[in-house]
Design goal:
Pfam families: Zona_pellucida. Keywords: Disulfide bond, Signal. Helix content is about 5%, strand content about 40%. It has about 120 residues and is mostly beta strands. The chain has a single domain (about 10-105), classed as Immunoglobulin-like, CATH 2.60.40.4100. A hairpin with a 2-residue loop joins strand 3 (about 45-50) and strand 4. The N and C termini lie far apart (about 50 Å).
C-alpha cells in the first residue's frame, strides 16, 4: 500500500521491462475505485480512452519512450473511502507507427442510438 492524504498530488510512473527502445507506452484508461476489481460503483475516472477526465491530471516528460509519467490530485471524489485502488490500462505500440493506438490520442467514442 501507498499512503496519501486527500488533496495531495500523487506522482506515478509506468515503464516497460523491455530493452527494445522502439516500444512506446500510451496511458489508455486509469480509474480510482474503492473496490479491487474494476467496478462502476464509486469509480473516479482519471483517463478514459486516452482522454483526460480529471482536471488535476498532468503528464510529464520522460526520456524513454517506454515510460509514462503522470500525476493527479489524490482521489478528490472518493473522500469517504479509507482504501482506494488505482487501476490503469496501458497500450504498447511500435514507435513511429502513426496508425497505432498510441498516436491516436484522445478518442471520444460516440454513443450509438438505440433503435425501436
Amino acid at each position: 500500500p501507498y499512503y496519501v492524504s486527500i488533496n495531495q498530488d500523487l506522482f506515478l510512473e509506468a515503464s516497460l521491462r523491455s530493452p527494445d527502445p522502439m516500444l512506446e507506452l500510451f496511458l489508455h484508461t486509469c480509474v480510482a475505485s474503492p473496490h479491487h476489481h474494476n467496478s462502476a460503483t464509486g469509480v473516479h475516472t482519471i483517463i478514459k480512452d486516452g482522454c483526460i477526465k480529471d482536471p488535476t491530471y498532468a503528464e510529464f516528460y520522460s526520456p524513454r519512450r517506454g515510460t509514462v509519467r503522470f500525476k493527479f490530485n489524490a482521489f478528490q471524489s472518493i473522500r469517504s473511502t479509507p482504501v482506494v485502488y488505482l487501476q490503469c490500462q496501458l497500450v504498447v505500440c511500435r514507435a513511429f507507427d502513426y496508425s497505432s493506438r498510441c498516436y491516436q490520442g484522445c478518442v471520444n467514442r460516440s454513443k450509438r442510438e438505440a433503435s425501436s
